[in-house]
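Translate structure to sequence.
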């Protein structure tokens, strides 16, 4: 039995982004209930050399649209990273979910062998087959940033756990 590139990507992105949205709602509620400036959570980091929560969510959304677009053979849309509030992050996650909701399994047929070029024309250019791109680059990058967003919030006292991270499956 083979697993399709579509089922290995789009439903996974949907599950985890929906869970991330729910975690962000809990964080916003936590800030309000504890009288914490929301910006304290939005700019929180696990370590000074890591990106803050806002950037973690932006990058997770970027990987969602980028991986999906590349595998489906369409141009990756450019979205400015201007989010500064929980409402902005919710809108970004909703936008990413709506975007990937426009794709269907047929658009991914044959994408496991499609050549994906990362950082084209630069010294860091890398060429990967679609399956390697998804399994060894796209999904790990996406999960890193979703996990880091979760960890930032948990570290800052937001009452979330594994079920919140996983969402509905």
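Result:
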């Amino acid at each position: 039995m083979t697993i399709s590139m579509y089922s290995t990507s789009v439903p996974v992105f949907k599950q985890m982004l929906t869970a991330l949205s729910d975690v962000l709602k809990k964080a916003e509620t936590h800030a309000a209930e504890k009288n914490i400036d929301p910006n304290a959570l939005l700019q929180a980091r696990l370590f000074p050399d890591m990106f803050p929560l806002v950037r973690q969510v932006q990058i997770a959304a970027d990987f969602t649209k980028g991986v999906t677009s590349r595998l489906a053979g369409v141009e990756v849309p450019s979205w400015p990273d201007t989010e500064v509030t929980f409402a902005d992050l919710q809108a970004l996650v909703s936008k990413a979910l709506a975007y990937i909701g426009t794709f269907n399994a047929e658009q991914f047929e044959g994408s496991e062998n499609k050549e994906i070029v990362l950082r084209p024309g630069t010294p860091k250019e890398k060429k990967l087959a679609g399956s390697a791109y998804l399994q060894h680059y796209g999904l790990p990058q996406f999960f890193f940033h979703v996990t880091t967003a979760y960890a930032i919030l948990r570290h800052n006292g937001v009452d979330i756990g594994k079920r919140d991270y996983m969402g509905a499956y």
